[in-house]
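wait is this the right file?? whatever heres the structure
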């Protein structure tokens, strides 16, 4: 039973579910990053995600929006898009897992050139790989595979983080496919801990 003073008690049930970011958030150590630097990086990451969404949604992006602070990341993304993306099926899509009880907004899902199945990708702008990224992508894989409505006709075959280069060079794709079930198990453990201690 929910506490009678819970401010979320009138919200739809799916809005009360924890997100992948919330479940994994306590395992992301940002204490060593100065607050002002973290704020700049967060704002930069939001802009990159917004403009990629616009681009993949066939919306016009005024050139002036691609400011010097994101120009390298943008060029790096375009390398990937122009060479690797065959078809975009989902972009910035929120999905709800009704069996384990969580939500996630995945950056991109589609078909890469040469593949027959789906790939789930998360755009990343940090220069070092985060320790929670594998579990995050495994959770997104589950959302696409089990909770997409209507379901996509193709199976999910790959998932990974695309680390965009600030220098505008070819991005690095960190693939987590091989051990996806293990990473999903890790995510479920984090989700359970979040529920128990939050």
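ok assuming it is, sequence goes like this
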């Amino acid at each position: 039973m929910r506490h009678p003073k819970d401010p979320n008690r009138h919200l739809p049930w799916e809005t009360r579910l924890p997100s992948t970011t919330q479940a994994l958030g306590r395992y992301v150590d940002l204490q060593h990053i100065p607050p002002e630097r973290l704020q700049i990086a967060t704002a930069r990451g939001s802009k990159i995600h917004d403009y990629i969404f616009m681009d993949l949604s066939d919306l016009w992006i005024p050139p002036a929006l691609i400011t010097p602070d994101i120009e390298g990341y943008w060029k790096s993304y375009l390398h990937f898009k122009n060479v690797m993306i065959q078809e975009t099926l989902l972009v910035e899509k929120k999905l709800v897992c009704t069996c384990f009880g969580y939500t996630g907004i995945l950056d991109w899902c589609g078909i890469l050139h040469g593949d027959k199945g789906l790939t789930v990708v998360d755009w990343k702008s940090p220069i070092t790989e985060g320790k929670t990224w594998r579990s995050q992508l495994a959770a997104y894989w589950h959302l696409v595979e089990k909770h997409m409505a209507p379901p996509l006709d193709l199976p999910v075959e790959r998932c990974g983080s695309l680390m965009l280069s600030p220098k505008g060079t070819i991005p690095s794709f960190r693939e987590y496919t091989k051990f996806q079930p293990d990473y999903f198990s890790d995510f479920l453990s984090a989700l359970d801990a979040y529920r128990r201690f939050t």
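The mean pLDDT is 91. so i think its the right one actually
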